[in-house]
Amino acid sequence: MNIRKCIYLFVSAAVLAGCMERRSVETGPEERVTAFNEAMATGRFSEAAALCDTALMADYLRFYTAEWEKAMKTDSSIAAAANAILSGISTDVVSVEKDGNKRTVRYTVSISGYSSAKARKAVLRKEEGEWKIETVTEDN
Questions:
Q1: Is 109 or 76 the better-scoring residue by pLDDT?
Q2: Cβ neighbours for 60, distance < 8 A, ≥ 6 positions apart
Q3: I need a surface site. Which of 18, 25, 67, 117 has the fewest CB within 10 A?
C-alpha cells in the first residue's frame, strides 16, 4: 500500500508540475484575469497572488484571505458548500483596452446556476514579460 501511495504522489506531482509549466507560457491579460478569478473563488490565494502586483493588490488579497479563513474557522461545512458553488465561476471578457504597457480588462463574473453577473474591471501591467494585475474594481 505504501508503494501505491508513493506512486500516486509522484504522478500527482508530475501532473501539477506539468500544469505549472503550462501556466508559465506567455498568457494574455484575459487569461490572467480568468485564472485570478478562479483561484480567488476557490481559496487558492497564493496562486492568485502570483498573478498580481502583490504590492498594489496586498489589501485586496489580505481582505479576501482573512474572510476565507474566518469562514473556514466559523463553519467549515458552510465554507465547503460555498467553495463548491464558487468553483462554477465563469469569467466572460467584455473588452480589452490598450494603454502603453497596461491593459484594462472589462469582464463579468457569474456563477453557474445564478442569474446575476457582476461587472468588473482589472488593470494589468506587463512586468518582466508577464501580465500582472494591479487593480480589480467594480465596473459601473
A1: 109
A2: 135, 136
A3: 25
